[in-house]
């Protein structure tokens, strides 16, 4: 991509423009497209490796640099050029060609589908769905997404896309339900996968739940019968399932509370002065369990992750 500078001619290749509108002006910088995302994710920290030219432009293609007075008016008179460039890099919109944009969207789309397919299961069989089935379910949500989902109960092709996370008492809270309107290229695949999972669990175009974590919890037997107070309310998240689990932790003993986090106990045993339980926990309950064990046992108890995502338990 040739760019004519005022005093000479510089030929830029593999260029990506990052644009930011500030005030009434639009400012541009010329970057190496492979480095912009690395800079935003924190992998690349050296601006010299990101920028093709360390200047701020009004138009890169015309070689028109931004006047000092325009930069001062938009970003403040004491803001350095490096700080301005960093703001444009972090907040600006990256311009790429149509083919590159399509390839990037396709890559993110595939990553999101793969992540979601690896984290959700059929709640009855505990088996994973194929990537194709997850893709179709998300297409149903995006087709019936946005304002339409907020204004009425959507009905997907299967006729099952109705909200489950809030129940009959939650009909007036549909606007709080997570929405899915499709893949975007301005967010990471990981963050979009989380949004997609929340929407799928909430709206259920196909029956889904998060794959359970398999944990081992150990605690001194001397603490098991120690009484604990029930908190006023334990915050419920979409990751905590569709049955309202985790809304309120029970009072009782330390052992009672530990078992309340475990959806399915696999083994339970006492050896010497230590009690051990192995079981399946929903990912949304893992943090609460860890905090309880750490606080209540003062570091004498442990939570060990055996499997991050259990898809199917034989038998």
TrEMBL record:
Protein name from the UniProt record: Ribosome maturation protein SDO1
Any single Gene Ontology cellular-component annotation: nucleus
Span of domain Ribosome maturation protein SDO1/SBDS central: 110-211
Gene Ontology BP term (one): cytosolic ribosome assembly
Domain Ribosome maturation protein SDO1/SBDS C-terminal: 227-308
Principal location: cytoplasm
Chain intervals with Low complexity compositional bias: 156-165
Gene3D superfamilies in UniProt: 3.30.70.240, Ribosome maturation protein SBDS, N-terminal domain (3.30.1250.10), SBDS protein C-terminal domain, subdomain 1 (1.10.10.900)
Coiled coil: none
